[in-house]
Each structure stands twice: as C-alpha cells, then as structure tokens.
Amino acid sequence: MKKIVALLVFVALAVTTFLIASNNNTIPTGWFMAGSNPTEYEVSIDNTNLQNGNSSAYLKSKSPKGKDFGTLMQTISADNYLGKRLKLSGYIKTEDVEKSSGMWMRIDGYNHEQLGFDNMKGREIKGNSDWNMYEIVLDIPSNSMSINYGVLLAGNGKVWFDNFQIEEVDKSVETTNIIKENKLPNEPVNLDFEN
User: Cα angle at 40 between 177 and 62, to 5 degrees?
Assistant: First the structure.
C-alpha cells in the first residue's frame, strides 16, 4: 500500500511539474525557439501585459552566459513575395534588457546565402521601454528561398511583443538592409599597371 501511495504522489508531482513547466514555456502556434542557446530563455503567452487584443508573447532570460541569445521566430517560403519589398512591423516592450533586443528579418537564397538581413543593429532596444512600434523593410530578390523573422533577446532581461504584421510596400519606402551591396566595377581597371 505504501508503494502505491508513493507512486501516486510521485505521479502527481511529475504531472504538476510538467504542467507548471508547460505553463511557463508555451510557444505560440506557428512559432519556434532558436538562437545560440535557446534553453537559457523562457517563452510564453502573456494575457495581462499586452499592446492590444487579448495576449502578447514574451522572451525572458533564465541564466544566459557571454554571447547567448534566444529568438522566437518563423520561417516561411519566399515564393509569394518574390520581387516585392516587405515591411515587418510590430510592437515591443522591454524590461531590464542588458545587452539588446529587437526584431529581425533575414532573406535566404537557395545556396544558403543571405540576400537581405536586419537585426536592428545600431537601433537595438535596451533597458526598460514601454510599447513602441518598430519596422524592418527588406527586398525579396527573385532567387529567394525563405523569409525568416522574429524577436531576439541577447543576454539578460525580458521582452514582450505583440501585433506583428508583414505587408508589401512600394519602392518609395527605404530598406533597412544592413548587408552592404557588393558594388563591383563594370569594366576591368588598370590591367597594364600604368596608372
């Protein structure tokens, strides 16, 4: 009888631990965790701290080390967007972000080359901030394979995000691409070394 009671207590504790862990790490439908060390970050839904609607999502550090970062992200096919200019926009709020946080978007080609990228470097979000809207704009070249995007948190802190949107914009909207275009000369130069 004692073995049965002990087993039932063990099962009850295991189920309770599982439910608590599940409630503290609820990945939103359609999204997945990635990064240099995603296990050092907690992700979940928040029904009380939101920009608009019924819920937001958040990333929170556990005990990251050094250059650890976590990201909640999606990857979609580029097929429906080839030749277009896309804007990723969304609302972000931060708490005690020591290193950086922000949105990011990357365009990948079929040979694993990066055709476009922006991780808000130089305009990252740090410290404490209220809900603000941020935007990333990238071109989707005709040889694109996938569009990857999400929110990242580097180091310690917590970041909430809500109401993300991807929409086509016209060419009058400037891109935020941080990959420098390779500007090669059109013709050979100084082949006889006389200049």
Answer: 110
